[in-house]
TrEMBL record:
Domain 3-dehydroquinate synthase N-terminal: 61-172
Residues at which NAD(+) binds: 65-70, 99-103, 123-124, 135, 144, 162-165
UniProt xrefs under SUPFAM superfamilies: Dehydroquinate synthase-like (SSF56796)
Species this chain originates from: Guptibacillus hwajinpoensis
GO molecular function (one): 3-dehydroquinate synthase activity
Presence of the UniProt keyword DNA repair in the record: no
Gene: aroB
Biological or metabolic pathway of the protein: Metabolic intermediate biosynthesis; chorismate biosynthesis; chorismate from D-erythrose 4-phosphate and phosphoenolpyruvate: step 2/7
Functional note: Catalyzes the conversion of 3-deoxy-D-arabino-heptulosonate 7-phosphate (DAHP) to dehydroquinate (DHQ).
Comment on bound cofactor: Binds 1 divalent metal cation per subunit. Can use either Co(2+) or Zn(2+).
Protein name: 3-dehydroquinate synthase
Residues where Zn(2+) binds: E177, H240, H257
Chief place where the protein resides: cytoplasm
Record-linked InterPro entries: Dehydroquinate_synthase, DHQ_synth_AroB, DHQ_synth_fam, DHQS/DOIS_N, DHQS_C
């Protein structure tokens, strides 16, 4: 088992990474807590709930799998279940699942009785990003993650064994966020990933622990400096401004989060090269994405003008001005106000089948 500490203004919390460590989660969670309450989804319930719910007195709430569960109605159901369970302020919520469960359970923990503890037990590679840093929330029809709170977990317990049952598409989706952490912070790590020459699902347990710890360490360093996203934490949104817009325009769940972010990263690299008149190996990275099965072009059914308008509604936008995280070079991100015309021109060049390179 490996571990690292995430430091924030409110204190620090541990992240444990290992194989089979979900079975000893109660040893790893520092109490004392009056009770635990597990929130999970239908898919994870069948695979892993029994290994977590060792004490049958621990109550659970199961939500449908998928992005649709990050909704007002599902949040209301969760809160009703917590209230009916008569949890007090010394209770602790266990978020067992991927990013959707973590965001929903975390927001429930942040708002139940004005805030109780919660522990993340992620079951996807994508959640190496969302399980750390304290962002919780739900979606609104006008945009993704627009309603939420900053609420740090008490601990994160990352059992790599849980990743072995993921479909290939979910592996790739999570790998996209690992790549993002390398692009914004660590060129040597990016080179290691590109040179590994195999799909992420073929990584050994040791290699998985290595990339997860690397990714979480990048995020932890940024969160330590800027917990509330007033400055450099926005760098973690590299690729996400367009990615979120694509998800919203397609309809949540049509494309995985990591796939949408992959397209957003290629677009941001292209925009960076144009904006800073530099070369960022965009063609090499795009070719690598295609080799490992990540999409690189905007779906042709989407309207570019609508995508631009959607991007202007992003939480990072100011005064309806398009703001994107770009790279001066690999490992050196910067937030930039981008002219609509340039953004639109390169977006049109990024459309599937446009012949763009």
């Amino acid at each position: 088992m490996d571990s690292l500490s995430i430091d924030t203004n409110g204190g620090s919390y541990p992240v444990y990474i290992g194989t089979g460590i979900r079975f000893k989660w109660q040893e790893l969670v520092k109490g004392p807590y009056s009770s635990f309450f597990i929130i999970t989804d239908e898919e994870v319930e069948g695979r892993y709930l029994s290994s977590i719910q060792q004490d049958k007195e621990i109550q659970t709430f199961v939500v449908p799998s998928g992005e649709e569960s990050k909704s007002f109605s599902r949040y209301h159901e969760v809160m009703t279940a917590l209230l009916k369970a008569d949890l007090d302020r010394q209770a602790c919520i266990i978020a067992l699942g991927g990013g959707v469960v973590g965001d929903l359970a975390g927001f429930a923990a942040a708002t139940y009785m004005r805030g109780i503890d919660f522990v993340q037990i992620p079951t996807t590679l994508l959640a190496h990003d969302s399980s750390v840093g304290g962002k919780t929330g739900i979606n609104h029809e006008l945009g993704k993650n627009l309603i939420g709170a900053f609420h740090q977990p008490a601990a994160v317990i990352y059992d790599t064994e849980c990743l072995r049952t993921l479909p290939d598409r979910e592996w790739r989706s999570g790998f996209s966020e690992v790549i993002k952490h390398a692009l914004i912070h660590d060129e040597a790590f990016l080179n290691w990933l590109m040179e590994s020459g195999k799909p992420v699902q073929d990584y050994s347990d040791e290699e998985l622990q290595f990339i997860i710890k690397k990714g979480i360490a990048v995020k932890g360093a940024i969160v330590k400096e800027d917990e509330r996203e007033k400055g450099i934490r926005a760098y973690l949104n590299f690729g996400h401004t367009l990615g979120h817009a694509i998800e919203a325009e397609l309809g949540y769940g049509k494309m995985t989060h990591g796939e949408a972010v992959a397209i957003g990263m290629i677009y941001a690299l292209r925009l960076s090269e144009e904006y800073f008149q530099t070369t960022l190996r965009m063609d090499d990275i795009k070719k690598w994405f295609q080799e490992i099965g990540l999409p690189t072009t905007v779906p042709k059914e989407l309207n570019t003008n609508q995508l631009i308008e959607r991007m202007k509604k992003d939480k990072k936008a100011e005064n309806k001005t398009l703001q994107l995280v770009l790279l001066k070079r690999i490992g050196q991100p910067i937030k930039v106000k981008v002219n609509d015309d340039i953004a639109l021109k390169l977006l049109r060049a990024s459309i599937e089948g446009s012949g763009a390179h």
